[in-house]
Design brief:
Blueprint (H helix, E strand, L loop, with lengths): L5 E4 L3 H12 L4 E5 L6 H5 L10 H5 L6 H12 L5 H23 L12 E5 L3
Parallel strand pairs: 1-2, 2-3
Helix pairs in contact: 4-5
C-alpha cells in the first residue's frame, strides 16, 4: 500500500487547490476521485467560485449582503448544516480571497509546483 503525506478526496476546485498547495510545500500527495473525470462540481459550474463579500467583487460594483449570502447557502444545504457553520463560512470567505490571491499572483516562475510526486487515483462510485 502506498503512503502519502496528504490524501485529498475529490478533484474539484477545493481538492485540486489542496493537492497543489500541499505538493508545492513539499508533501507527497494522493488525490482520489470517485468519478472517471476530473473536476467534481466545479466542472459543472465552469470553474467559477462564488465568495460573497470579497474585495474583487466589490471593486466592480457587485455586493452581496450577509443576509443574501446566508439565505443562498441555507437554500443549498436544505437544513442539513448547522447555522453556526454557515455563518462562519460566510464570515471567513473574504479572508480566503485576500490571503490566497497574492500567493497565486506572486508565485515565482522558477518554482515548479509539481516537482513533488502527486498521484491521482480514480475510483468507481
Amino acid at each position: 500500500m502506498r503512503e502519502f503525506d496528504v490524501v485529498v478526496l475529490g478533484s474539484g476546485a477545493a481538492g485540486l487547490t489542496a493537492a497543489v498547495t500541499a505538493a508545492v510545500n513539499g508533501a507527497s500527495v494522493g488525490l482520489f476521485e470517485k468519478s472517471h473525470e476530473l473536476g467534481g462540481t466545479s466542472a459543472w459550474s465552469g470553474g467559477h467560485v462564488w465568495i460573497p463579500g470579497n474585495p474583487h467583487q466589490a471593486a466592480i460594483g457587485v455586493n452581496d449582503s450577509k443576509e443574501e449570502a446566508l439565505t443562498y447557502l441555507r437554500s443549498l444545504s436544505r437544513g442539513m448544516l448547522d447555522d453556526r457553520l454557515l455563518e462562519a463560512l460566510e464570515r471567513k470567505q473574504p479572508d480566503v480571497v485576500i490571503s490566497t490571491y497574492p500567493l497565486v499572483s506572486a508565485a515565482p516562475s522558477s518554482k515548479k509546483p509539481m516537482e513533488k510526486e502527486c498521484a491521482l487515483f480514480s475510483m468507481k462510485a
